[in-house]
Write a structure and sequence with these properties.
With 276 residues, the chain is of the alpha/beta class. It is built from 11 helices and 8 strands. Helix content is 42%, strand content 14%. The protein starts with 5 loop residues before the first helix and ends in a 16-residue tail after the last helix. Bound molecules: 3-methyl-2-oxobutanoic acid. 3-methyl-2-oxobutanoic acid binds next to strand 6.
Length: 276
């Protein structure tokens, strides 16, 4: 099979089939996520806390994500690979924003790029417009946008005021302006289900929810949470495996076997080649 393209994504969307997206930050996990059949893999700036040991996404750099995106591209064959523009790699000026978006395609081999937009965010909407005109496919991201965590006052679910509130109106308007600027899909993070439903009905691009409920066109989760790998057990997520226990158990067994002399055995050793 060949890689998922925007055209094949839209075929699925038009058939009303839910789209699937997961994160990956390295080759071994990306290989399994791809083989498992997701449509899109996001090399997200959530690498900051899930992969790099930071408290949040803010310290993550372009170089951090370009290297990880290239690893994920090399390890996969079918999923569409989306690189994530990290905090302040875009928005300070148009030229460097577009250049940085383009680096994911030129240097890392990604198929598309995601960036976060604040409600009403004129700056990022202009960047999306320029990128899509130049041929850089952009995935939008609105709602609870983690790069603005300090501004938002923490990981607060957005749109609690109700779908028909002025905040709901503003999110719908932002989604429609992003659509007009050319996004091919839109991540809705941490918004109430009625708000996500209203946005999904208001745009003709696939919406992909995380903590956005059921009435969206697809779902995305952080793979560490799905696998139970350093997972924090969020209400919005679902853990399908417990890799922390499996990894810890294997390491403890290895330590015990080395300390007791059970490993290595004769089977793990090499004999010299007999000289005639
Ligand atoms: O960086 C990330 O993993 C994300 C997803 C949570 C959508 O932006």
């Amino acid at each position: 099979m060949s890689r998922t393209t925007i055209r094949t994504l839209y075929d699925k969307y038009e058939r009303g089939e839910p789209l699937t997206m997961l994160t990956a930050y390295d080759a071994p996990i990306a290989r399994q996520v791809d083989a498992g059949g997701v449509d899109l893999i996001l090399v997200g700036d959530s690498a900051g806390h899930n992969h790099m040991g930071y408290d949040d996404t803010l310290p993550v750099t372009m170089e951090d994500l370009l290297a990880r995106t290239a690893s994920v591209v090399r390890a996969t064959e079918e999923a569409m690979i989306v690189g994530d523009l990290p905090f302040l790699s875009y928005g300070t000026d148009l030229a460097s924003s577009v250049e940085n978006a383009g680096r994911f395609l030129k240097e890392a081999g990604a198929d598309a790029v995601k960036l976060e937009t604040a409600p009403g965010g004129d700056t990022t909407i202009e960047i999306v417009d320029r990128c899509t005109e130049l041929g850089i496919p952009i995935q939008g991201h609105i709602g609870l946008t983690p790069q603005r965590m300090n501004e938002l006052g923490g990981p607060v679910i957005q749109g609690r005021e109700g779908a028909e509130s002025s905040f709901g109106d503003e999110l719908v308007d932002t989604a429609q302006r992003l659509e007009a600027a050319g996004i091919f899909s839109l991540v809705l993070e941490g918004v109430t289900e009625p708000v996500a439903k209203r946005i999904s009905e208001a745009v003709d691009v696939p919406t992909i929810g995380i903590g956005a409920g059921r009435y969206v066109d697809g779902q995305v989760l952080v793979t560490n949470d799905v696998l139970g790998l350093g997972a924090e057990g969020y209400k919005l997520s679902k853990q399908y495996a417990d890799l922390d226990s499996i990894v810890r158990g294997a390491v403890e067994e290895y330590v015990e076997e080395v300390e007791t002399g059970a490993f290595p055995t004769a089977e793990n050793t090499y004999e010299p080649i007999d000289e005639e």
